[in-house]
Amino acid sequence: MEKFQQMFLRQLKYILYLLSLYTLGWGFTAYKTFFLSLILGTVISIFMLWSLTRKIDKLGQAVLERKKVRTIGTLSRLALAALAAAVALEYPQYFAIVPVVLGLMTSYIVIIIDFLLQKWKNNGQHA
């Protein structure tokens, strides 16, 4: 599980870099609504990634101990996404729904890119 935690921390670092770019975009451009929406979606995406990581860690421990595991928290992550969409729809003067959804997808995009980078890096070491 140590490798799994390292992967989570690496992905979190990438997302925080993106979040800092979004914050700079919000502060220094005229696209306040767009960047604020990305920030909202990304912050919730970080929480969803953390929740998924924690649930998968518990699943791994349960498998090792031969115990049952109920879920990996899909419903709670869907509820968080619905909350982000509800906030965006409730306050259209501050948020737009499309960038919020893009922000919600940030962690999944980072996971895919991190996987590809690690695969490329590991293939280079074996050559």
Automatic annotation (TrEMBL):
Domain of life of the native organism: Bacteria
Membrane topology per record: Multi-pass membrane protein
Keyword Transmembrane applies: yes
Pfam families for the chain: ATP-synt_I (PF03899)
Keyword 4Fe-4S in record: no
Major subcellular location class: membrane
Transmembrane segments: 12-28, 34-52, 72-89, 95-117
Cell location: Cell membrane
Coiled coil: none
GO CC, any one term: plasma membrane
Alphabetical UniProt keywords: Cell membrane, Membrane, Transmembrane, Transmembrane helix
Protein name (Swiss-Prot/TrEMBL): ATP synthase protein I
Organism in which the protein naturally occurs: Parageobacillus caldoxylosilyticus NBRC 107762
Gene: atpI
